[in-house]
Amino acid sequence: MADRGNRFVTFDRRSSAMIDKLSMHPGVTGAMHQELHGAMDSAQPSATGRAAESTLAALVERVRGETGVVPAHLIELQRVAREYDCLIGIRPVDRLATELIESGHPTKGFHIKGKSANWGPQAAFICVDQRFSKLEDKPNRIEKFDRQVQSCIAEGYAKRVPLTLSKARFDKLLGEGLIDRIRRDGNGMPTTFEAKAPSGAVYSFEARHIHSAGEVRYAIAHRGEPIEVLAPPKDGAKPLTADYDLFLIGPRLDDLGPRDNLPVPDVSHDVFRVRLEGYKNGIPDALQSAYRQPSEFYRKEDTEIGNASSRVRDMIPIINAALVGDGEAVVHHSTDSCSPAAEPDANYPATFALPQKIGCFDEICIVHDKYELAELIGGAKQVGYHVPLNPLWEKEVTSVRRESFLVAREQLSANLR
Known about the structure:
Strand content: 15-25%
Helix content: 25-40%
CATH class of the largest domain: Alpha Beta
CATH topology of the largest domain: Alpha-Beta Plaits
Oligomer: single chain
Order of helices and strands: HHHHEHHEEHEEEEEEEHHHHEEHHH
Largest sheet: 6 strands, antiparallel
Number of helices: 14
Number of strands: 12
CATH architecture of the largest domain: 2-Layer Sandwich
Number of domains: 3
């Protein structure tokens, strides 16, 4: 594995400027101010004996280009990890959603299954027509998610609203290269523009200048039809954007107990079926119904947050309170480590908040691939943490074992020879 030493940001006089910069961030609360400035005083030398010291502010600066988590939220997430002595991982967050989250846009919950967009003027929003989502180049999946969007609207979990963009948002998308070839009217207002989709196709859009609460905004359409996005079903609600999907929560091994039991321990119906098919004496009658019917197998899942342990259920409001206070929740459902819909290829880069430095992984860090995840899991196990693993994840990850277990297995094998 490549040497990570050159990835670390060391503590120097610039850290003071970083702390001041983060302290001025609009999302930083009074408690966060104390955390930021206290970090400078409490920084300790790293286990590797580096002469320089790292601070949380420096670590935030190091990772902010690779994560869509709001910078101020990273400080608070690490505080939660330290206070509750656990690893907290978050799956990739679209960086185009970051400013929407920090400006108070609500994030999609467990019942909103539509995919957000990663291109065009609708980037980071959930389009009613999933052709305009990140699935644009996957036509075989669009119909399924179109149905799910219509279902969440029909069931009252969301409503459709026309997409409008502020001038600042429009300019940001232009600066990011998400839109181009803009034509403007005599007053300099955009009227038409183009955007390249994931398939490589170029789409034309229209922008109509409107006034909203004294703010210049643009109503967006495609071929004369308004682009519609999902919003909460209440008056005046801002459109929904991406949430923070928890990757995993890993407690201390000595804290492991009934609170960590899952309603559906096998996680996946396919995994469950394979396990039962390996029974030498056949499948017990008591398990036949769950074996044949996925709905029966998943019956014990929580309808609001999914296959969640009591620990995860308790941690969701704790994390939300730490990150946003009374604002819009950013975490809504259980972790990917116990999700039957896990997509391992979509898990990276993952953002982690650790209770302490673990091996070469700092308290706030990015895990880029399955090999780094396996390394972090191995290191966490060595220092006394339990890391829940989804059987649907990569074998390089699910095969990680505690060193003491491997030693004991080798000794047992030697004794049996």
